[in-house]
Amino acid sequence: MRRFFFNTEQRSGETVILCADESRHISRVLRYKPGRQVELQDGKGTIYLAEIMDTSENVRLRILAERSGAKKGNTGLLVGQGVIKTKKLELVLQKCTELGVDGFYPFLSSRCQGDLIRQYRGKGERWRRIIDEACKQCLRSRPMDLQAIHPFEEIIDLPEIEDNVVKLLFWEHERETNLASLQEPLRPGSPVFLLFGPEGGFCEEEIECAGRAGWQTVGLGQRILRAETAVIAAVSIVQHHLGNM
Ligand code: SAM
C-alpha cells in the first residue's frame, strides 16, 4: 500500500490535508479517487491507515487507524561527515537514510574546503526533503535526524553521546584495525558513532585529538576511497555486524 508524508500541523482531529506535492502525486500521477485507502506517516514513527475523502484541491483524508512504525531506522547508528561537495553530501544523506543511520552530523575540520559552507547555506529544507523521500522509498517510518554543522572539536566530544557508544574514526592510514578486528566486536544493538573525513581527509592533529577523546581509528583496506564511497561501504559493513543487513 502506498505511503505518504504529512506534518502534524496538516492534521486536525482525524482529518489530514496533504501538501501540494503529495496531493499532486495522489490525484494526478496515481489518479487515486475518494474511497481509496492509503498509508500516511508523520515522520515521528507512527503509521496511519487513511481513506481519501476529496482530491479536488489538496487531498483530504480521514484517519481510520494507526500503529507505531517498525523501528527500521532505530539502529542507534550515528554518522559524522566532514563537509564535502554538496552533490556528494546529498548522495550520502540519501544512502545513509536508506541504510538505517539514525543521526547525521556534518562537521567542519581543518581540511574541509572553505567555500563549501557558503554553498551549504539555505540547503536544510532541501536536505530534509531528500531524507523524507528516501524514507518513503525504503518504507522507513522514522527519518534520519539531520544535525547542524559542528566544528570537529565539538563532534568528537558531544555531551549527548553516552559513554557506551562505540566511536570509530575511519582513517586511510590505519593498517592494524579494521571492522572485523575491533578490540570490542560490534554486536546487535551496540550504539555506534562513525566519523569520516572530508575530501582532504583528517590531519595528524585531528587523529590524535580524536584518540584522546576515545575514538578508535579504523581502516577500510589499502585503497583510498572517495569520502562518499567510504561512508556507504562502512555503514553497510557496520549494519551487517549489528545484524541489520
Ligand atoms: N586524505 C586522503 C587523501 O588526500 O588521499 C583522502 C581522504 S578520503 C577522500 C576521505 C575520507 O574517506 C577519509 O578521511 C576517511 O574517513 C575515508 N577513507 C577513505 N579511504 C579509507 C580507507 N582505506 N580506510 C579508512 N577510511 C578511508
Please estimate the helix content. 25-40%
The hetero molecules present are: S-adenosylmethionine
- Main sheet, how many strands, which sense, barrel? 7 strands, parallel
Would you tell me the structural class of the helices and strands?
A: alpha/beta
Number of DSSP helical runs: 7
The CATH architecture designation of the largest domain is: 3-Layer(aba) Sandwich
Net shape? elongated
* Fourth-level CATH superfamily of the largest domain: SPOUT methyltransferase, trefoil knot domain
Query: What integer is the average pLDDT?
Result: 91
Instruction: Evaluate the radius of gyration.
Output: 20 Å
Care to describe what's here?
This protein has two domains: 3-68, Hypothetical PUA domain-like, domain 1 (Ribosomal Protein L25, Chain P, Beta Barrel), CATH 2.40.240.20; 77-241, 3-Layer(aba) Sandwich (Alpha/beta knot). It is 29% helix and 24% strand. The model has no long low-confidence stretch (mean pLDDT 91). Strand 2 and strand 3 (15-17) form a beta hairpin. The strands form two sheets. Strands 7, 8, 9, 10, 11, 12 and 13 form a seven-stranded parallel sheet that branches. The chain has a six-stranded mixed sheet with strand order 1-4-5-6-3-2, with no helix packed on it. The radius of gyration is 20 Å and the shape is elongated. With 245 residues, it is of the alpha/beta class. Bound molecules: S-adenosylmethionine (SAM). S-adenosylmethionine binds at residues 170-172, 196-197, 199-202, 219-221, 223-227, 230.
